[in-house]
Amino acid sequence: MNHPILYDKEQVQKSQQRLLEMAIIVKSILENNNIPYFLAQGSLLGAVRNGGFIPWDDDLDLYLFEDGYSHSLSILRESLPSDLFLEDKFSEPLYFHDWAHVKDLSTECTCEQFPQDSYYAHKGLSIDLYIMYQMKQRDWPKFKFDKALEYLGTMRNNRLISEEQYKVKSGLFHKQYIDRIRVIDDSEEIVYGSTVSSRIYKARDIIPLSSIIFEGYHFSAPNNCDGYLRTLYNNYQLLPPVEKRVPHYSSVIFK
């Protein structure tokens, strides 16, 4: 996908610097309130492989745990500075994700890859606050299926997809559910998972949390970063093809 010349390497780095400033604020609030979190997804991959951001990455991913998630959002809502905005179902009428975002009010982004980003009123740079759920391994397929239907139902109710689109997508999710049942055994083992990945993680790879350096700052990390990243990406040291090394956003305007 071609990105406008407005958003070149220098602009991506400028976005990364702003995201780092945001992340330091968020981590400080969480740590000061003894709220466990950890760097995850591509942000953790960048920390392990690059010591910070993946060169073309322009978003940032954190996980919070389900059992304290609502409380964590309440603390952030009260504590974020005026140039940051907590975006969730309570602050955005069309919200359909099951996790919240911390949005920057000093930037405005466009995104060709993920047009659903444009549904929300606030379009600044974003930190994803994903939810890490704990469950028994045997409960994982139904959890994913129920969450997928909830997501689609919210989009349909907000008139972001049609009834026909809902039926088609829910049918696909049902097939995926059946496929997961075939490969997941009836295990009582405690695992961790989220709605943003089809992977499940062994508890020992997630807790107790560890620490990692990201752009010169200490952030919380999974207990076993290698195990987490291998589960998520398989051979995570292998770089994607050049055509896949693109930012999330198409352009970012600094106001």
Describe the structure.
It is a single chain. The protein is of the alpha+beta class and 255 residues long. It is 38% helix and 21% strand. It has helices at 9-32, 41-50, 69-79, 140-157, 163-183, 203-206, 225-233, and strands spanning 37-39, 60-65, 84-87, 100-104, 107-110, 126-136, 190-193, 200-202, 210-214, 217-221, 251-254. Strands 1, 2, 3, 4, 6, 7 and 8 form a seven-stranded mixed sheet that branches. β9 (210-214) and β10 form a beta hairpin. Mean pLDDT is 93; it is low at 1-5.
Sheet with the most strands? Answer: 7 strands, mixed
How do the SSEs run, as a string of H and E? HEHEHEEEEHHEEHEEHE
Structural class: alpha+beta
Our measurement of the CA-to-CA distance between the termini, rounded to an integer number of angstroms, reads 25 Å
If you compute it from the alpha carbons, what radius of gyration comes out, rounded to the nearest whole angstrom? 18 Å
How large is the count of helical segments? 7
Low-confidence stretches: 1-5
Total number of beta strands:
11
How much helical structure, as a percent, in the residues? 25-40%
Strand composition percent: 15-25%
Mean of pLDDT: 93
Query: What general form does the structure show?
Result: globular
